[in-house]
């Protein structure tokens, strides 16, 4: 399966400008030089497409690749690294132990830092 010569319209990202999770995915796509269509979401009035493609969490980012949605920023970043493995820079290190350490710190930032910055209550987005 050749992911190298993907037409730009095959890749779509649902995001929101202020989201650090979305930014992380945009960095990953940029490291790989992947062209994509960006769709800005209003999180107080989510699009039908977003709700359909991420009906479990209903959050951005969601990457749509060949019509198949991938959600959760960590999962998307690793997917991008693997789907375009021979293109651009490597995102995660090759060594299994180094990969584990990289994932450890990603999780640490999510759990300890982001949780304090981003909160959603009553379907409203709060920025502390
Ligand atoms: N664990 C998710 C977190 C994504 C997330 O929290 N997205 C926020 C924007 S920063 C969102 O879509 N909030 C809308 C909501 O919770 O209704 C990831 O890593 O992708």
From TrEMBL:
UniProt cross-references to InterPro entries, sorted A to Z: Glutathione_S-Trfase, Glutathione_S-Trfase_N, Thioredoxin-like_sf
Ranges for domain GST N-terminal: 9-88
CDD domains in UniProt: GST_N_Tau
Gene3D superfamilies tied to this protein: 1.20.1050.10, Glutaredoxin (3.40.30.10)
Designated name of the protein: GST N-terminal domain-containing protein
Taxon lineage: Eukaryota, Viridiplantae, Streptophyta, Embryophyta, Tracheophyta
